[in-house]
Amino acid sequence: MAGYPRSPNVLKGGFVVMDEAGAKVQRVHAFQYNPDSLSRTLAPRGAGSSPGDNAQALRRTGPPAETIALEIEFDATDALEHPDRHAEVVEHGIAADLAALESFLTPRVETITATKALADQGLIEVLPAPGELLLLVLGPARVLPVRITGFAITEEAFDRRLNPIRAKAALTFQVLTSEDLAMTSRAAELFLAHLKRREKLVAGLGTSLAALGLESLA
User: What is the pTM of this model?
Assistant: First the structure.
């Protein structure tokens, strides 16, 4: 008789890095451990009103501004128990994992040097280098274009070469909405698909006015 698995098959969350146009996946980074919790803060976007101006009270100019904060853990302990299969971890600890997170914030060296060289020659204006599209993936139903607005790493343990082998990264994200993105962009398409999934969830809910004792509103 087939037995039950000891634990459910839980999907990993993580990040997908795409090119600026959102046309090509460049890298995928799964969480080693899914976050134990995350916090979401939503600030409504309204038309604004002044005292006595009741025409704007119910107007919404766009989706709310959403901030997500979570903590990611890294631990090399399991990998170090099998050094023959994890040479990179033996050599560098979890430095590569931390570097991957930092790469979300840092332009590539060749981009920095090429842009600076052109600017020094007066060939271009000094503008921020175009960045990659970062997606925060929290299951198939939550794929969000985001910008990192807060980043703090606490390294908690080290090997004999002072490579970090255990760390926590506290990250804060701004969800990029249709207010922030060109409507024809892939990032806006992904955000609007996310909103449609939420609308579908809401459509499946509901109760009767009678349950609230408000039959008079019918």
Answer: 0.85
